[in-house]
Amino acid sequence: MVHTKSRNTATSSGSPAPRAEFFTLAGIAAASTGAISAGEKIYKAVSSPDPLDLRVLSSAAVDNFHRVAFQALNQTMHGVYLEGISLAQPKSKITRIFAENKVTYGDNDKNIIAFPTLIPPGESLTFTIEFPLINSANKAFGLIALRYSPLSEKAELQRKDVFRIRWA
User: Fold this and answer.
1) How far is the C-alpha of 94 from the C-alpha of 128, rounded, in Å?
2) CA pair distance 135, 32, nearest whole angstrom
3) CATH number of the domain that 139 lies in?
4) What's the number of domains the chain is made of?
5) β partners of residue 87
6) What pTM, to 2 d.p., does this model score?
7) What is the rounded CA–CA span in Å between residue 143 and residue 66?
8) Are residues 78 and 130 in the same domain?
9) Residues 68, 85: one domain?
10) What is the pLDDT of residues 71-110, one digit of tens each?
């Protein structure tokens, strides 16, 4: 009769013990690579490629002007200065840019935005642009251009966003 040592393949809780191959360097590397890859995919899905997100809130004709309201959201952990706003399409001049809850000092209209204006981390600036009515419904869209400076960046950035022009 040959005696062999029995291997205990169960833990104290009764569950099978992990196989030695699981703890090899190759096994750990394979598991961590999969976790890192999944984490990168989740991060890319939820993060915006731009530190400043622009939302179009409303568009209407009021008196002899188009008024389009926007919300600029600072998506960073740093302040962002809005340096300027212009229209790339239509080729109209913006007559006024005013903001909700914006207070300036002196004789200026309390809602007119003065540039540069700070958007603190995680906060937003809601503003409305006003420009003369355009004659053609064929060009029922516009293109707004923003210049901004994240305090965590070396250079000023720019973005252009499309918006619908409405007459009602």
Assistant:
1) 10
2) 60
3) 2.60.40
4) 2
5) 144
6) 0.67
7) 13
8) yes
9) yes
10) 999 999 999 999 999 999 998 899 999 887 554 444 455 5
Q: Is 13 a residue whose pLDDT tops 50?
A: yes
Same-domain check for residues 125 and 154: yes
Domain residues for the domain of 25 are 15-47
Is 69 found in the same domain as 30? no
In this structure, is residue 6 part of a structural domain?
A: no
Q: Which residues does residue 162 pair with via DSSP β-bridges, in sequence order?
A: 143
Report if residue 148 sits inside a domain.
yes
Asked if residue 156 and residue 140 are part of one domain, the reply reads yes
CB 28, CB 35: distance < 8 Å: no
| pLDDT of 155 strictly over 50 | yes
The two tokens of residue 149 are 């400076």
Backbone phi, then psi, for 19, in 5-degree steps?
-75, 150
* Predicted confidence (pLDDT) per residue in 39-82, tens digit: 665 555 455 568 999 999 999 999 899 999 999 999 999 999 99
Q: How far is Cα 67 from Cα 97, in angstroms, rounded to an integer?
A: 9
- Distance separating alpha carbons of residues 5 and 114, to the nearest angstrom: 84
Give dist(CA 146, CA 163) in Å, integer.
13
Beta-sheet strands, E only, within the chain? 52-62, 65-74, 80-89, 96-99, 117-119, 124-132, 141-150, 157-164
